[in-house]
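It would be a great kindness if you could assist me with a short task in structural biology. The full record is reproduced below for your convenience:
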Amino acid sequence: MAEGGNLIVGLTGGMGSGKSTAAGMFAELGFRRLDADQVVREVLLPHAEVIAAVREHFGATVLDQDGRIDRERLGAIVFAADAALQWLEELLHPRIYHYWQGIYAAARGEKFIVEVPLLFEKHLANRFDFTVCVSTNSELQLRRLEQRGVPPGIARQRLAKQLPLARKCELADFVLLNDGTLEFLREQVSQLASRLSLTQHA
């Protein structure tokens, strides 16, 4: 168990698999929710040090008229070039984990559900007590992403940067199936949350 008696569960899956929906259900059951993408959006990308590094590397065209990072422009660059994506990840990932460590250290005996899209791609499983993968079929993934406004071509491009969902399921300690109703997913989350909570006090 993590230092301080915290239970830290890593949650992953492909884009459009339903990670955020599942994380929200864990939160309703008393888990404290952390989201890697949210940390990037709200904490890191607005940070002056990160803005300066991104500007130096990619040029001023990735900034908007207020001098902030334009996530859409930056995303178009990094998802089109592996080297650019790797550079950005190497800039951001250590900062994400440092931020989380501060949150963990300030907590005692809490349960965390932590959304990490690239949990297995970046070999981060050892940072968590348990790992959970949310699985769905590729047709549903693309449909959900399209409903979010992501064009199919861009969705396929970004999914190609991730491990196949089947491989993530093989690597995870637990798998949640999200091909059915919300109630079906909620029932699985409830059962798993109870099971994981028992390990915290074992």
Q: What stands out?
A: Residues 8 and 50 are 27 Å apart (CA to CA).
